[in-house]
Amino acid sequence: MIDQTISHFRIIEKLGEGGMGVVYKAVDTRLDRPVALKFLPDNMAKDPQALERFRREARAASALNHPGICTIYDIGAQDGRTFIAMEFIDGETLRSHIHGKPLPLEETLTLGIQIAEALDAAHAEGIIHRDIKPANILVTKRGQAKVLDFGLAKLVLKGVATEIPDSTSIVGIISGTPSYMSPEQVRGDNLDPRTDIFSLGLLLYEMATGRQAFSGSTGGAIIEAVLTRAPVPAHNINPDIPPELEEIINKALHKDREQRQQHAAEIRAGLLRLERGTDSSWKAAPENTASVSISTASQLQSTGEHTACTSTSQTQTGTLRAVRVSKIIDSLAVLPFENASRDPEHEYLSDGIAGSLINTLATVPKLRVMAQSTVFRYKGRALDPQAVGRELNVRAVLTGKIMQSGGSLRIGTELVDVATGTQLWGAQYDRPPGDIFAIQDEISGEISDKLRIKLTRAEKKRLTKRQTDDPEAYGLYLKGRHHWNQWTEDGFYKAIEYFQQAVAKDPAYALAYTGVADSYVLLGWNSYLPPKDAFPKAKIAAMRALRLDPDLGEAHTPLSAMYWLHDWQWQEAEAEFKRSMALSPAHPTASHWFAEFLMTVGRHEEAIARMKSSQELDPLSLIISVAIGWTFYHARRYDDAIEQLRRTVELDPHYPITYWILGLLFRKMGSYELAIAEGEKGVKLSGGSYLMRAALAQTLATAGRRNEAIQVLDDLTKLATQKYVAPYFFAGIHIGLGENDRAIECLEKSYEEHSHWLLYLHLDPSMDALRSNPRFQDLLQRIGLPLRTA
């Protein structure tokens, strides 16, 4: 590109390259002035979504005329390459400018004022940026801040905190960078200018401390921190930060946007007041300034308590002494216990005991316990309990090691205070395996004592309640759960074997019957078995569990799923879901399945809210994360769905269901190459899932690649003679091929099976080609969902 002339711009040198653009310095040969030319990267130059974002950047920024916003001169194209010509700024990004060290106070205030002024000007024109971060702020050699990259900008009604739906919004791109996103942005809520205020607070924090407010080893950990964790108090990192500046930052970073500054002008005014009242050196905070640790700050924010402890005085060198923290510990993570014997045959025991403790401690009132699927994402990693506790926003972490050898069971445990890193409690047990129940009771009791939680007599009884007194039955149950947690077809079958063996040992073991029910639910829901072979068995097992223990919330969950998925008894399903959640409020599965139920009966806003509540119970759950995207997809909020699924990719790039739904989304939006690419990833990662192969075939057919689609159809037809393949899957392929009558025939077969897939029929965008068909309308009437459209 160097020395080439694009339009009337002669390129001089390459300035930089990022995920969404390559920037060159050029000369405008007509006006003889330097400019910056921004091109899309080659791999995105023909992507219609990327092109639209590129054009949006030009439109949004060109509508603004402010010294703190990079000026857009022109947008054009040559030889198939679209470019933006913009103001050339001689400087560096704010990220490079900070370079991991706090900026002088005077400079922090000056830059903060300038950025606030630029954002206020954009907001006044009805534009929110949505991607304010250090990489999108340039600092000129004269010290002027310039806001760049309005590629994620959206219009809002001026003066109204409601986002205008934008049919041209770009899909496939996360609206923001996780470390600099607001909580509402992470949740996928409608955005208003206050999302930029949160991001501005993050910039001020980083300029004042040299560190990001939210960081973590994974994208999921960062997202969790943004949603639930308070940053380390800025003055803990830089003791010389003026209290007034920290107050401005803390207010901007409030999780509730109603509690933040409501306009960028408010931040500007506060910074101006501070600028007028200070010199160029930092002012030390008074020695009696209230100070809390990261964990206490988070706790106070979530509980509304006002019991912050006062820091001790500073030494003359400015080193902070240890701060006192609240003695109340209201949140806990039980990390996967280490299998010290390294024998894979004993893995079920280390996993199972940790899982049992999680379930038991989750019954303790006023104690928030992280869900098993979230903490088990740390399994097999060398862990610093204090660091993990901070990532998960809990005040205490329980770790353990287990070794079983012959007739001896050795368990070592340690409870760590995340705020201070000190050991709250530790114990070593060397007992016969038959004492496992007593050991777990002791651990639960010791933890509740050390956390200073006062329990009533009934609560103490619940804490030590056992579902079986037979250690052998308990071991079989743990083996069943170990296989169930693998979430594979083979894993569910093996789980059923162990659960049934546990029931044979102890016929009164209600929790083991629940395991059988859960396994059959998922064998049917994932279409590994026909509905008639899976769902009735799930219902029988759940009802047996409830006859033994009517208050077992975990057993109400599969029963409610059966009323919904198979019996199509809507009122009974909703009542059972609510009963389950009332008995086991910390059980994320019940909340997640209830959200899916709400979606199928047309209660989309309730479904989305319930999905997000489920994610709060289990922040790192992959299935819940994709379920949120699935809900957005059926609500036809495609941009929100893709943003959510991109977050799931950050949590785990190898989860196949994510790519299946992305393929559905891109197909519906007409981006067939992207849809095929995502669909192929899902098929590969799933090992050839019938569901995902069928979805890919429908995409291939819709894209005009009929021969490939017909080949998949033939392959699945042959497989259906050997294993169960849901007729609903074939219906989609026939729709893609334009064979609507054959698609209806497949749906009629689904109706004969009482297939749960039909509960999505009125919503599923993949079925849109059939909507006007009278036979399709008749089928919807026979299903009889109690739809709520408002």
SSE arrangement:
Blueprint: E1 5-6, E2 9-18, E3 21-28, E4 33-39, H1 48-62, E5 72-78, E6 81-87, E7 91-93, H2 94-98, H3 105-124, E8 127-128, E9 137-140, E10 145-147, E11 154-155, H4 183-187, H5 194-209, H6 219-228, H7 234-237, H8 243-252, H9 264-276, H10 294-303, E12 331-334, E13 338-339, H11 347-361, E14 368-369, H12 372-375, H13 385-392, E15 396-405, E16 408-417, E17 423-431, H14 436-450, H15 457-463, H16 471-484, H17 489-505, H18 510-525, H19 531-548, H20 553-565, H21 570-583, H22 588-600, H23 604-617, H24 622-634, H25 638-651, H26 656-668, H27 672-686, H28 690-702, H29 706-719, H30 727-736, H31 740-753, H32 774-783
Parallel strand pairs: 12-14, 12-15, 13-15
Antiparallel strand pairs: 1-2, 2-3, 3-4, 4-6, 5-6, 7-9, 8-11, 9-10, 15-16, 16-17
Please characterize this protein's 3D structure.
The chain has 790 residues and is of the alpha+beta class. The protein folds into five domains: 84 residues, Phosphorylase Kinase, domain 1 (2-Layer Sandwich), CATH 3.30.200; 212 residues, Transferase(Phosphotransferase) domain 1 (Transferase(Phosphotransferase), domain 1); 136 residues, ABC-type transport auxiliary lipoprotein component (Rossmann fold), CATH 3.40.50.10610; 95 residues, Serine Threonine Protein Phosphatase 5, Tetratricopeptide repeat (Alpha Horseshoe); 96 residues, no CATH class. The chain is built from 32 helices and 17 strands. Strand 2 and strand 3 form a beta hairpin. Helix 18 runs antiparallel to helix 19, helix 22 packs antiparallel against helix 23 and helix 28 runs antiparallel to helix 29. The longest helix is centred in the N-terminal third of the chain and has 20 residues. The two termini are 55 Å apart. About 9% of the residues have low confidence.
